[in-house]
Request: fold
Amino acid sequence: QQQFTQSNSSLLSSTSQRQIAGTSNIKTTTSSSTKTVLITGSSIIRDLQQGNTILNNKQFNMIVRTKSNCTIEQMNESIKNKEFNETSAMVICIGTINMKYDKPHDAFAKIIALIDSVKASYPKTKLIFTTIPKLNVKGIKSSVEQVNADVDEFNVLLESLQDTDIDIIKFGFQNNML
Reply:
């Protein structure tokens, strides 16, 4: 088993680790002492390792399901079609593709629809979103700077969900990770 600490993962802050470890009010799916956590999203998560890990003296089975080039709308369809098994928690890293084309508020409205779908399809699963990194492409927008301003605005909108029953992990993406 791998001990999951901040030194092993520069992506998760200690606050984020506490958010995942604090999912004690959610359904256990593998054994009474292990919680299963699904991490899904676009290719930004492709290098995450899955397997058992220990965090704050709790055991987690981390499952990673990458959906390359996945938009928020496509993830919503996957959720509606119940393409995943029910897990204790679902961490979703999505929105980078949409930011090349959508306005932040439009993409956020799609996140709200995705939340509704997760609650309907996986009612016992704790939902966690991640912030998304800045991008080095402009898509159909006027400039890379515009895309990144929109990413910042989208992340602020995502963070506004923190006051609901949704948790937000603020990832510390660096350019060499992208």
In short: Residues 1-19, 21-31 have pLDDT under 50 and may be disordered. The domain at 2-171 is CATH 3.40.50.1110 (Rossmann fold). The two ends are 27 Å apart (CA to CA).
